[in-house]
Amino acid sequence: MTVLRSLVLFALAALAEIGGAWLVWQGWREQRGLWWIAAGVVALGCYGFVATFQPDANFGRILAAYGGVFVAGSLGWAMVVDGFRPDRWDLVGAALCLLGVAVIMYAPRGAPA
């Protein structure tokens, strides 16, 4: 159950961060206005809190692993929201990042030395 909770939290963090960054991008680069930017800032703030609910207490480990989730999530967001078509190397890179997430977060660890 702890792994499932962790995966859900990573997905929520990705949604908040990528969605927030996209909203800021839309507000500024696509000139949709300050409300879009404000919504993006709120979403980015939510991302900052979501990570604190991860079961692992090590900030560095959480943030490092989340980096891989962010890479894969960004490609997924771009496909769904912006119609981006990743090539095979995008997909290979994202898969490698997710493998890194699995190793960092879920590899069996012995007692500290």
How many structurally independent domains?
2
Q: How many individual β-strands?
A: 0
Number of helix segments? 4
Helix-strand pattern: HHHH
Taken from the alpha-carbon principal axes, the silhouette is: flat
Instruction: Please give the largest β-sheet.
Output: none
- Low-pLDDT stretches are none
What is the compact description of this entry?
The protein is 77% helix and 0% strand.
How does the SSE layout of this entry go?
Elements: H1 2-28, H2 34-50, H3 59-82, H4 88-106
Helix pairs in contact: 1-2, 1-3, 3-4
Description:
By secondary structure, this protein is mainly α. It folds into 2 domains: 55 residues, no CATH class; 52 residues. It is 77% helix and 0% strand. The chain contains 4 helices and no strands. Helix 1 runs antiparallel to helix 2, helix 1 crosses helix 3 and helix 3 packs antiparallel against helix 4. The protein starts with a helix and ends in a 7-residue tail after the last helix. The relative contact order is 0.14. The mean pLDDT is 94.
Top keywords for this entry?
113 residues, mainly alpha, 4 helices, flat
